[in-house]
Structures are given as structure tokens and as C-alpha cells.
Amino acid sequence: MRILVTGSIAYDLLLTYDGSFPAAIDPAHLEELSVAFVTPHFARHHGGTGANIAWNLRLMNQDPLLVGTVGRDGGEYLALLRERGIPTDYVETLEKHVTSTAIVATDDEEHQITFYHPGADSAGSWPDLNEERESLAYAIISPRDVRVKLQALQWCQQYRVPYVFDPGQQVMAYGEDELRRAVTGSAGVIANAYEWGLLAEKMQASTDDVLEMTPFLVVTHGEQGLTVYKRAGKAKIAGKAETIVIPACTPDRLVNPTGAGDALRAGFITGLAANWTLEQAGRLGAAMGSFAVECEGTLMDSLDLNELLGR
Question: pTM value?
């Protein structure tokens, strides 16, 4: 069975700042904000939420079905994906646009500031996947153009493909009703702590409220691990969530945290597709995330599965 992945396919420009972003910003003068950060380190890599997740799934011997959009400069990226065994049949190329680009700056406290140009993804479309329906175990709907993302959610709901909703940093681009429909139709929701805060505020919903709409909620906390909230069992107090706290795995070294969240998502949905428990799936996700921070870009060159399972 395959895992449907839709999300951005992008080039990443990674910058590193030797200092703290918050320390350089005076809260008393935000209305006059004008700052510049000298970043001694620069690197260009392949990235994007959809491509990152699909790549990590392939490293775990999964068979991802990637849906996304690239521009006229995306041919080399598509060739790289195919070389690694990731089919690109449902990745469209739009010659009038460039491929999405993310500029990600990270300080020495792991704060990040991202600028994102959607490029071709802003003009993308949802393909006809009807022939693929029977081969799909799960889907993960990750950040990309909101219009196409809503089409993906509708398709999964129509054809009853269980999906994990990953709102990413796009929460404010949705209306409250759109968010409620996305969450209500999902098999679960995954977000980092900041995104969950925005989601809860936009929906005016607590953890227990969300668990009346979807079976589970995963909130990631970076180096602090992740928390899984799930609907309470019949023997538990009605309306109260069961909470599973999963610690982070310690990496051998920390190079760059960019892409760790996508690796975690790939591990988590791999566990779901294998019918593991939420705790087991969360632990696999934590382990995948720890390997991702050990490399410079978001795409690990290789992965030892025995080391992954051991960690």
C-alpha cells in the first residue's frame, strides 16, 4: 500500500546567524522595525514539505505517491527524485513559473525566520488520482498552495482515504469553517507547538474540542519531543484526552534543524500505515527527526534502518 503525499516541492536557501534573533529585536520599537542579520553560512538545497516527506518515506522503504508542482527550473529536481525511486508522474511542471523557493535563517538558539516564494505551486492543480485510490493506505496533506490543499482534502474525504492534516504555517490563510472541515474529516492532525496555538485560537477550540472532531492530535516540541493526544477510551473519563509524551531522540550531532519536522512526519505516518500504535508511530517519528538534524540539507543521503529502529 502506498502513502499519498502532497506538499510543496522547493529549493531551500539556508542561512545561519551566529547570535539570537530575539536579542537583536527591541520589542519597544516593533513599529519601526528594520534589522539586518549577517549570516556567515549559506547553502542551497532541495527541499519543500512534500518532497522532504516523500524522500524520507523512501529511505524507510515506503512507496510514496508524490503530488506537487515545479517550475521551469524543476527538471533537475525531478530527475533526482526519480533517481531515488520516487515517481514523479503526478508532479506537474509549469513553464511560466519558477519552482517554489524558501529562504530559511536559523540562529544559534534554533529560532528560525523563513521567507517563502510559492512560485509554480501558486498555479498548481489537483490531478485525477481515481486509478490510484485502491493502492492508498494513508495520505498526509502538508503545506502548499491553500487552494490546492483544500482540493486534496476534499478528494481524500470523497474517496475515503484516511489523511493526516498538517496545517503548517498556513493556519491564518484558512477560514475558521475551512479549518473545521479539514480537521473533522481527518484521521488526525499534526502541528508544532506554535502552529497548534494558532490553530486552537483560530478555531476557538481546546485539545478536547479538537478530539471531538478527529481521533488524535500530535503536537511537536522540537528538541523537547512530541505529545500525542488521543480520544479517551471507554474506561476513561468522557471528554478527556489521553496524553502520550514521547521524548526526543538525541542526535549524534546537531548540524541544522531544518527538515526535522518533515522527517518526523514521515516516520509517524509510516507507523500509522503499518498499524502501529500512536506511541510506536510517534517514537519512529522522533527517531527520524533526530537523524534529519545531523545533515546540512533536508534530504538525507542514506539511512541505516537498523540504526533507526535502535534509536
Answer: 0.89
